[in-house]
Fold these 4 entries.
Entry 1:
Amino acid sequence: MIEKKLTTQEIELVSDLIAEGVDRAGEEKAALFLAKLSLALANLVGDSAQIGPAVEAALRDL
Amino acid sequence: MYLPLAEPRSSVFYQYRIHPYRRAPEMDGGRSNAPVVIAGAGPIGMATAIDLARFGVPTIVLEQELQVSHGSRATALTRRSVEILQQIGVAERFIAKGLPWQLGRSYFRGQEVYQMVLPHDENDRFLPCLNLEQQYMEEYLVEACEANPLIDLRWGQKVIGASQDNAGVTLRLDTPDGEYDLIVDWVVAADGGRSVLRKIFDLQMEGRSYAGSFVIADIKANIDLPTERLCFFEPDWNPGSNVLIHRQPDGIWRVDFRLPDNETVAQALEPQRLAPRINAVLEMLHQKTEWQLDWTAVYSASTLTLPNYVHGRVLFTGDAAHLLPIFGVRGANTGLQDANNLAWKLAFVVQGWSDRALLESYSDERVEAAREICAEGGRSTRFMTPPSKGFRLMRDAALSFALSEDFLKDLLHWRTSRPHNYLTSHLNSFPEADRAFSGGIACGGPVRNVKLGEGDFLLDRVGAGVGFHLIAFAGDRRADEDLVRILDQAGRMEFPVVRVAVGARAAEIAADQAELAIADSWERVAAIYDAAPGTIYLLRPDLHVCARWRATNADEVTQALRNAAMTQQRLQP
């Protein structure tokens, strides 16, 4: 289970931002946009050990 | 009866020469005196022969063709390769003809997104890379082989069979005069990526091959650009592909691109498909010029190696031993390091100085190097030719970011071939003494060149010597009692040891007890090797450090020498 670090309001805000980003990228470029965003966020997290579990968590129940 | 092609190959820049086939003396009842046969007169086979000859070992080099390589093939030599060529005494013509370079530029969507300057400083004699068509590399090595009385280079000899037992190897050869057997103690398999000897002995390589084929097209064109490595990701004219461009001597330009997945090799090489692509490349380079096609080839990327390069008395080297990705100029450059590692060890075994087990260290060290290259080269390959949708997406994400952000730009670094550090080698000794240094070259690492004066470099002098190198740093002192004993004992070994005195009074020391004196008036050698008076470095004949001490004595130095040479004596109780 991923540790909850943001408040619910913050998560909601971030989710909206990404949703708007996906829409702005357009259907064809959505995957590329999300891939870039993942790289940028991983870099900002600054701890590569946390990325593996996040990848696994995101893969669950697709 | 085997009849090699007797017509010179055609080329728009290179004059092929047919070398004469000669009937082998063994066909008329003679028996060869050469203890070593080298299968394959490519750059690696010939470099091995020339290196072996330095140690007095005669060789027969067998070449299937009557002429040098078809196409520019290897083309890029690294600094370490040029240093090895210098060591075996053949670098001059390579340097005179080759085009040196150190800069690579990568482009994406018409914008330069990455620039890589390969490291170079004033202590290096040679730039990081040297472009030279393989025909010239082979021509210069053929000349050196033919001028060497210890090398019997035989053209038009095709290996068709091989068997071995404890006593030796029997090679079955086919020639224009029919077949004959050649019986020798050792065979060096330098017969390339499609090694016949690897097939005859049914040896399997380990690793993986990557999907995707690449086309190389060499063109002669009048293009006004400097010698740099250019890489274009996803150019407009060929989306989904990259293009690599290298300048070569004689106005030859190499264009290298991935062919679309739905296209066969034969289709890709059809002139009506190839020509517009080359025109598109020239347009991309803003060059309006006529061009002529010289040579084309198709390759795919692999990271494959034999798990052991010693198969009884058959020793695999170069592409016969491993198939490595082209990205990072790894083929010939890895092969030349193989050759340099193998030659002295085989020579020491042939001369009876070393136990046969020394050859196992060749395999251990070079298989480890190949595996490291496979891992590194595999990463570069995944970037250049993503093997799946996921890898492709993340590669595209990195490229897209590279247009505006710096944090992941180094993913575009293509990891150029570099010398391997034999850190875990059994030939290294006195690890505590090694750890006492804070800088310099650690055990296993390759020699570092040092500028001694105008046009005068450490490797100009040290490299020319044959054997182990004992480098004694004396500062401004003369040899004290310990050093006298160390040098004296090293000079009495049954195998060659070149003693090098470094310091203000090196000439005095060398007068009696060393072969080489380096005054080190700029004190640069001492600084780069983290040395003080009393420091000793021991280099193997391939100029990798195998022991070093801040202070030591003759017994320790002898012990380290015997350990690294795996002398017969060492193995006796």
Entry 2:
Amino acid sequence: MSPARRKSAAAARSFRAPRDFRRGAPVFAALGDDVRLALVTRLSARGPMSTMRLSEGAGVTRQAVSKHLEVLAGAGVVHSTRQGRERIWEVDSAPLHAAQEWLDAISRDWDRALSRLKAFVEE
Amino acid sequence: MNSSFILHPRSLMSDRIEKRIVLRAPIDRVWRAISDAPSFGEWFGVDFAGAKFAAGQRVRGNVTNTGYEHLVMNVLVEAIEPPRLLSFRWHPDATDAAADYEHESTTLVVFELQEADGGTLLTLVESGFDALPESRRASAFRGNDAGWDSQMKRVERYVAGTP
């Protein structure tokens, strides 16, 4: 019989461990749009900005930018504060890091599964 | 504002995980390990005894790894093209036994085999992470936005390592 039939402790540990998938999901959904990705990229590179400034050169209307920012805010990726008549937006990095960590964890799961496959076929 | 935080758009935007590995075994053996459902189950850690991967078919099995036996793995086979390609859809990280994942989007897992020096090159891609529940709402915006093409080009530049 193949060695893989003997379930190792390592294999037992390496199945996808419970993680809070839903925490990451809205972040991926929010970033799964190129306009929003560009907005987040600009905010994280240059710091807080008003809706007005974010709309400049965005290639879409200010109304569209506002809607996109609301989607990002809904996923916890950005938040805004009022400053006079303007709304100032900034990035919240924690949800981005959490989503990245989730993806990294899935990536590591595949590394482990593939090394088991390697042992299975290379016997 | 966490000013030290720098977003890496490539990895975050990337809605895929890609792995390449050279297996020191002939392609037919690797193909069997991947495309024969019970064999797949052996190395992956799921009981697919008696199951068969066929395009359009759902395959379910209990996870066999200690501590996760309460979980059921559920895949929908999309394509099976011997001896090179197997793909299926599943709910990524569906590790909450009480949750109902049925209405959530799936990711696509693709195994691709290629003869390589000294064995077989396996490329694995899991994609679709950003096509998640809220994406229906997100896609509603797309139709309304003018200038989509020019925006795409701009984003390509962002992703290429600017801003």
Entry 3:
Amino acid sequence: MNGSNHEDIHRAVERTARESYGRLVAYLSSHTHDLAGAEDALGEALVTALRTWPRDGVPQNPEGWLLTTARRSFIDRARHQRVALASEPALLFLGEDSKEEPSSMEFPDERLKLLFVCAHPAIDPAMHTPLMLQTVLGLDAARISHAFLVSPATMGQRLVRAKTKIRDGGIQFEVPEESELPKRLDAVLEAIYAAFGIGWDDIAGIDQRGRDLAEEAIWLARVLLQLMPGEAEVLGLLALMLYCESRRPARRAPDGRYVPLSEQDPRQWLTPLIEEAEGHLARASKQGRAGRFQLEAAIQSIHAERAHSGRTEWAAIVLFYQQLIRILPTLGTRTGYAAALAEEKGPSAGLAALDGIELASVSNYQPYWAVRAHLLQRLEKLAAALEAFDRAIGLAEDPAVRQFLLEKRG
Amino acid sequence: MHFALLIYESAETFAKRKNDDNDPYLGAWRAYFKALKEAGIYVAGDALEVPETGTTVRLKEGKRRVQDGPFADTKEQLAGLIVLEVPSVDAALGWAARCPAASAGAVEVRPLAPEAKWRVGG
């Protein structure tokens, strides 16, 4: 065995893991309800693959091989620990130790059920996203802990607790009934969007949470779309994230400086992502069921049009924000609305909209202060602008955003 | 809960304190303090003088040992501390991430141990 061969095997295992991890965990846990057990079993199967594939070659059907190996390891562990497995179906399921390795077409894709389990109302909402990242994508607790700014040990404990609750709390692995579906789907979409971590970026100096999980969030949305093709809000969410992602190269100057949306060079935007987003949004809008993510995507689509027209249709953005605030009156949408209104009708109008937000709710909310500072400066209310800049700078996490605001503050 | 943010800075960052008021790092700190106070969570805090001004004392087998400089010779040195009152460690970590020293050095978040004070205090 030479080195490159070993690397090839390593890559084959990694590729199979990436593509199959969620499918295998979903399938193994949908019958046993034991997410932690399924992950451990799959983890052992992957370790075994790294050991035996270089010797025996990559199997014809790597996914089926992993499933069979993981299932055996699951049984061994259950016997070894003399754990009474939750239910009879679980035993029957694990007992089906076929001699044939099932092909990926032969075992059902249970990832949709798994996504609904991760975002179940009985689970702490703060854990919905971390659970998805771990069980569907196989991210480890340390990586997730960086994104969510908690210590790795704490994130590990929280994940274990959530999985115990899923196993012992009678949480069903099922797709919710029609009547419940919209609300439950919202929780899944919210959790995926939370991994993305970027809110809207309409205006100068907005601090974005540096989750660094955009790729993972887009992957999750693609999985969800594959499982629920044509669902308008799923299309909307994917479109929204693709629009934001298309601007990644333009968001920083070569020297690392922050470049706000209005100063970005549209030639640096990633056209294929914008085109894909436009396709999803068009498909969603044909269904005539506007929703939060479609509206947010629509706002971003107007910004994207600047690449062709050279200008931004602020009036259209204001209209979309008005609809959005009706269904989602959060600090984020209200601040975004104020910023857009200022562009359309002037800084006084924007400032009046900001003044409508309760002051107590914004003491920690950086975008509010960044927009406020910007508008006060345009109105030449300089002392008040300095105050607002200080708040925005003090609440910023990203050093590039902080630097940008310091320079604007003067 | 009370948490201490222990601020660690490199020698270069310490040196910025001598710059004038337009230094961006100092400006970021001023804004950060303002944000802490406006959020109503600031309890106490102070900056420390540069590490070279420290003197470390030990007693070894009854004999005094005095060393110039800080307790440990590391690249980043304790530069100050801030005590915050926030509901959870998550909130404390969020404020630590916003601290200008988090991108220039490091910020350790440690809960205060009030029960220890109660047991040894008068």
Entry 4:
Amino acid sequence: MTGALLAAGLACMLAGVGVDLGLGTRSRVARIVPYLLGAAGSGCLLAVGVHATLSAPAMVDIAPLFDVGRGVLRVDALAGLFMTVLFGIAVAVSLCAASWAWPEVGRAHRRAAATGYLALLASVAVVVCAADAFVFLFAWEALTVSFYLLTSAQRGSAEAARAPWATVGIGKVSGACLLLGFLLLAGQTHSFTIAHWSAVRPGALHAVAWVLVVAGFAAKLGTVPFQVWIPVGYPAAPGPSRAAMAGIAANVGVYGLWRFLAVLGRPPVWLVVTVLLAGGVTAFLGILFAGVQSRLSRVVAYSSIEHAGIILVAYGVALTGLAVGSRDLQIVGLVAGSLQMVAHAVAKSTLFCSLAFVEADAGTDDLDALRGVARRLRWSGAAFGAGALALAGLPPTIGFVSEWFVLEALMQQFRLGGLALRLGLAGAGALVALTTGLAALAFLRVLALTFLGRPARSTTGSGEAGPLGRAGLAALGLGCLALAAATPWEVRFFALGLAPILPRGGVLQALKSPWVLQPVYHGFSILSPSWLWIVLPVACVAVLGMAALFSRGRYLRVRRVPAWRSATSGVAGASSYTAFGFANPLRHVLGNVLATQRTRQLQTAALTTSGDEGAELGVSGDVARTAHLESRTSVAEPFEAYLYRPAWKAVRTASDLARRLQSGSLNAYVAYMLVALVIALAVAAAMR
Amino acid sequence: MPWIPRGLREGIVTSPYPRRPDGYDPGFFGHVEVEPSVGDTAAARAAAGACPTGAITIAPHPGRVQLDRGRCILCGRCVDLAPGTFRADRGFETAAFRRAALVVPSGEPDDAELAEARAQLARRVRGLRRSVHVRHVDAGSDGSEEWEIAALTNPVYDVQRLGVFFTASPKHADLLLVTGLGSAGMGDPLRQTFDAMPEPKVVIAVGADAASGGMVGEGYAARGGVAGWVPVDVFVPGSPPSPFGVLHGIVAAVGLLGSRPREGAPDGAGVPGTPR
Amino acid sequence: MTAGRDAHPAAGEGDRDRPAVQAIPFAAARRRVRDGARFCGLVAIPDQAGGGGGLGLFAITSDDGELAFEEHRPVDGAYATLTSDVPAADWYERRIHDLFGIEPVGRQRPEPLVFPVPPGARPPLAAGGDPSAALAPDPSPTPAHVHGEGVFTIPYGPVRSGVFESVEYLVETSGEDIPHLRTRIFYKHRGVDARFVGLDVDDGALLAEREEGPASVAHALAFSQAVERMAEAAVPVAAQLVRVVHAELERVANHLDTMVRHTEAAGQAVAYAVLSHHKERVQRLRARLCGSRFGRGVVVPGGVRRPPGLSPHGVLSEVGELQRRIDQDVQRLMDTPSFVDRLRGTGVLSSDDARRFAVVGPIGRASGEEEDVRMSRPYGAYERLGHRVARRVEGGDALARQRVRMDELDGSFHLVRQAVDMLAELGETGGWRAAIPPVSGRAVGWTEAAQGELLSVVEARDGRLAHVTQRSASFHNLAAYGSAFPKDIFTDVAFIEASFGLSIAGAAG
């Protein structure tokens, strides 16, 4: 049954690819059928996931169906958990994508974009189900290919040309890390079945394998120093495919981390501390840069980096538990990470899906041009609002619950003995706390200044989602809000899903009582998101009611007057805070991290005579008739500025050298070969 | 923090006004009083001719001398030239509910009309008695009225004790203090400010400039007062009026005087023509 | 006369030719400023007020206390701009363009400043114009000066939060910092200068007081001294001394006002109460001396209207007590770190900018422009009184300006005491006022107001005023205001504005 469903799901994807490649993007039907098939396939895979999780701890081995040998594809509870989350979202995203692809205008329709989307979903399914290293790596590379198809769908600009390059580059790095790590592990255990690798003994090779595996998955997730592809890669993908990349595909990195936690066993302490700090730094940098972006797709992309960091921190907590042998700490970390992963997946998908319609309507995703868009596009605006609140981490959304749990997990550092781990947890805790504050700032900026502002231009509303898209958006938007109320059930589901790694009873300790969460440890702190959903609205209504009551109705008598603004006679150009301007304090205060550069230059046109406003602008003498001050503020990503640019330069230099080497004479070649042979022999002798 | 003992050391410096009369310095010249009985004299004519703002009129028939406090800038020339008719007085309770009532001694004693104006204003401001929020707009003042209005928050006048607060936005204001002679550029901003105030609202024109344009009067950019732009409820004469004068205008406008009977002053205090 | 040029801003060739045809105007003034003289102003004086005649432009410069005037008569209502060589002339040229329609050639059409004349209308004081006909300024916005990503304009004013004079500051920013600030003062332009025409000199003094309320005494004094110079009248010594008392108390009140506004902006509630109480005391002392809290009606051409209302002894004891208390409290304020930190480094006006705008008064003295006309061009009793040597203050920030003002408070009290002592010694006075005959001619008077050097250019015919320009220090200095925000953010604006201590009434005219 499970096998059939899995096969049906993958077959839907394949059929979709056929339709897309065969029929192109001319007709509406040809455009939306692949996505509808994607939705159907995702539905099948969702069913597989739910079934596998609920039937835990039974393992569904489905290899015979494909006749590729036993133990190649299997769906255990952990795979089921991820399939449930990811393909549940994929159904909604596919509906949005179909709705997005329906109209002709405002969208850059490309052949192979749908192919990329479906390939992505299929690869995700295979990665999650893979029990064998070869299948795993094959699907992993297929994922990279699908990323290439998606990020190269829009062409024409230098930025667009960079996107597939960076995406595939980092994808290759990720694949290479995994390949090396897997080969090391396979070499030790003489098996390509992933589950068998738990036999590897601790030691130098084990540690190297750990590092390679974590790096490989973290690169897909988008943590430092691999995050550079995300802000160029995500925005380059068309429409709701971004949701698939950020909300679905990135989470296979999480899956990998979770899976190998059980496989690899106790990690070296320095790796744990590195993971914790890398996660903290990722989260902080991600949200910091999200706060100063002026394109909405980049804001959301950077926010993905932030979430990747928070998830990595939670993973670090679990690693800490593994390193010190504390099962409870492992549980806290993984439950926190899983909650964060779900929040990330749902909220990111919501944002990118609604953004697809917003961008189609406005023709741009420049924040200042989107002002008031929630008044034009009710559905997309509402969904975006829900997603943004979740990403801002405000109660009672899922973002609040997950961030609360992560912070609580980090606060358990007092239970540890080792200084390094305690410092690692404390440092990560500080960074995550800073991150949550900045997240509120960053997303309230987007929400208040962009979505809720006074409309910047006349309304058309032509980009709004159709019925399918509305259904998808509604499901995702409600997910951002209502899933928080359902957190206790979510935790119970995790208990089933995490069973292959952690004891089910232990995970259920995260529930103090049926409706109240606690960070596993008893008596530390509690939170009931479900109660928040009752208390907050009731409190609001109660306060309003009391105010109306005690003022004897005067509270309800509103005196209306025109809007007031210092009685100015008006100014030329923009006269209210731009989204860019609102982020400027951040550029000031954290100028060191952001490497903020400010320039003010007096621009003068060619027709120059003598003094004019120049006197007021700060110059005298010869200035132009059309003089104005040019004000520029820019920021630079530290990893790009200090790691990749120099590295790229080094690679260029090396390749230049290599070319020089290549164009030598025959004698030189023979000499090189001789030298190489001598070195090889020497190494072989030394090894022996 | 050395400031707290410093603040306490000063003791109470706040004026008792309007609960009780304030014994403000005898040297202060608050307004010009006209002796009604003297009538038309050569000295009074000389004073009328010398008045820089033409505030003094002498009606030909009964020979009655009248002074328009809305124009008077308190230069004191009339007092020097015709001491029998004009007297420098130190009282500051000179606010009037109508522009015409600034002309003293008043023509016909139409107390009924004046009482009606007061009653209408009192009805409008009934809700404000315990808390009045004030917005000030400068419509072309010379800058001195702003000093005197700002002085109301110093510890001597301390209007907060009366529940009077200055507010940043006209949307929160009940009372508009307008200063200045109505400079052409401020017409629109003043109107916008007035429109942004919710009902009920009260407008007080502060200073002779706001009533008549004062010494500058009218010109290409001066409109000779603000009454053409906003409906003024209370006029406070003076160039500039003292902080007490402004305060009297405020308390008179919002009925703070009426709500608390004051010793030593009849209930009509503040109505022109009944000086203490 | 200028319509063609305005319609075609690119027609610069013709413009550039023009100065070559006629001699470069104000050549001497340009040279003097280049050689280190201070630019004091550019004044337009029509040949006949409101008539159809010509008009003379006077560039005023000051070199080592010596005022120099250079006249230029514009041809066809235009002249080669002075701003190219003397940046401080910018606002003057714009003002003259607004009011008289005289075009400074060689710069873009000047942005309106004191009165944006609506399209098609004749400037109010232009030849053939009617200065009494009501004219509405054209408030339409002018193009932004700053371009760039995320740049927007915050209009701050004209109705601002608090009891302030009406002015609009346009902050062009990409958020938080203040790369550029423009000042729109036309809202409260009253056309006071035009109202002098036809008045007698006594009424002129009363009107001069209304130019700028906080500097009433200084305006009346500068005006009266111009008239006295024209009449060659000898002002009685006693009257000169009384003028010093009033002028210095006005300075004390103004400087206290800036400090009160500083404490208000810094949220120092007790210091605010204490200092505003001191200011009230000063105002009351002034009222006891003359009946007016602003010293109005005291200074008249020829002397003072009446002797002080307090005995010399009374004044001395009042002033001594005031000084003692103010000294203590201002010192306490300067020992309060949370206050001083707010001023330090805030609103730095560099000495280059101060030089460029030829800034006068305390603002100039805090930025290296040290001239104080009480000493460099002493007038009235200041010639007889001993001055304290001003302390040198460095920095050009709001704190430096506060220090200059503290120093000037000391100096003012010192001068008042000397003046009152001398008054007491004089015993029998030779009257309080010299007679002023009906005067004709042209003269200039000056004072050091609390805001800085104040010039009064007066022309009279047979005792009637034909033209008066009261060149307020507020107008001259406000031009530099936009340059005082090099590193500052929005929350510093209140401090910087207070530390400039200027009156918009004086600037807008």
